[in-house]
Amino acid sequence: MNYIVQYLVALMILVISTFAAWYEGSAIRENSFEWKYSAVFSKWFNGEVKSVADISQLDHFIYAAKFSPVFPNGM
To answer: Which of 7, 36, 43, 73 is 20–30 Å from 53 (CA)?
Structure first.
């Protein structure tokens, strides 16, 4: 029973940290000067990033880890 509670708590922390990091990383959409340095996955998938629509959701996590690493470390 103890292991189930531990796994559920760890899963809750993972989910909350993931959503918080994703939200904090969404600031990359407003900082176009950071697209060149933080939009790694978007460059792989789309080539050059020219607009907000070209930014991949995975780049939100990179941006969050770079500028506010509390929640990405919780992940």
So the answer is: 73
